[in-house]
């Protein structure tokens, strides 16, 4: 691994791999369950790739990728979950698994060749357009995105929800409410200039 020692000590692992000719999005986490659910083919978490092909891609090629192609050493055909043509040479291909060089091998199976490959999305996380190569960003998920993640990776029963009532300091009247979602030990809560009074928990 190329991670610094403090992250290795925390058992931080990557969701997604990059190599010499593959760029784009990877996620780093020290939550083993989250990593497994996001990475395992069992859960079919969609990963979207921007694929630059050497030769023009015909509509029949896209239909072949969606129907499934037979690769060497694979017991069954592998199919893209989705495949959109962006230009004559560029595709956005969605996969629900991450087998060895899967995109490149699938493109080779339609008699074409990958000239450039970029992972632009994992689950609900998009690669920010303003994030340059080599840069990283701490992602603080909103409670709504956490909820989508939970449904997406089958962790909805693992979410703990704390319902919070907001009280005004002077009048003592409730001015609103919101929820804290806890997923894999990561707690996300908005900042409010009010006193938070815990009134219940369930889940």
Rg from C-alpha positions? 21 Å
Q: Helices and strands, in N-to-C order?
A: HEEEHEHEEHEEHEEEE
Number of beta strands = 12
Structural category: alpha+beta
Alpha plus pi helix count: 5
Distance between the termini: 37 Å
Q: Please, what is the average pLDDT? A: 75
**Helical proportion?**
10-25%
Strand content: 25-35%
Unreliably modeled segments:
157-172, 174-203
Biggest sheet record: 6 strands, mixed
What is the 3D form?
Answer: globular
Layout of secondary structure:
Blueprint (H helix, E strand, L loop, with lengths): L4 H5 L3 E3 L6 E3 L2 E3 L2 H8 L7 E7 L5 H9 L14 E4 L4 E6 L6 H8 L4 E9 L2 E2 L16 H11 L6 E8 L6 E10 L2 E3 L6 E8 L1
Parallel strand pairs: 2-7
Antiparallel strand pairs: 1-3, 4-6, 4-7, 5-6, 7-8, 9-10, 9-12, 10-11
Task: Characterize the structure shown.
The protein is an alpha+beta fold and 203 residues long. The chain contains five helices and twelve strands. Strands 2, 4, 5, 6, 7 and 8 form a six-stranded mixed beta sheet that branches. Strands 11-10-9-12 form a four-stranded antiparallel beta sheet, covered by helices on one side. The protein has a two-stranded antiparallel sheet with strand order 1-3. A hairpin with a 2-residue loop joins strand 7 and strand 8 (125-126). The longest helix has 11 residues, at 143-153. The radius of gyration is 21 Å and the shape is globular. The protein starts with a helix and ends with a strand. The model is unreliable at 157-172 and 174-203 (pLDDT under 50).
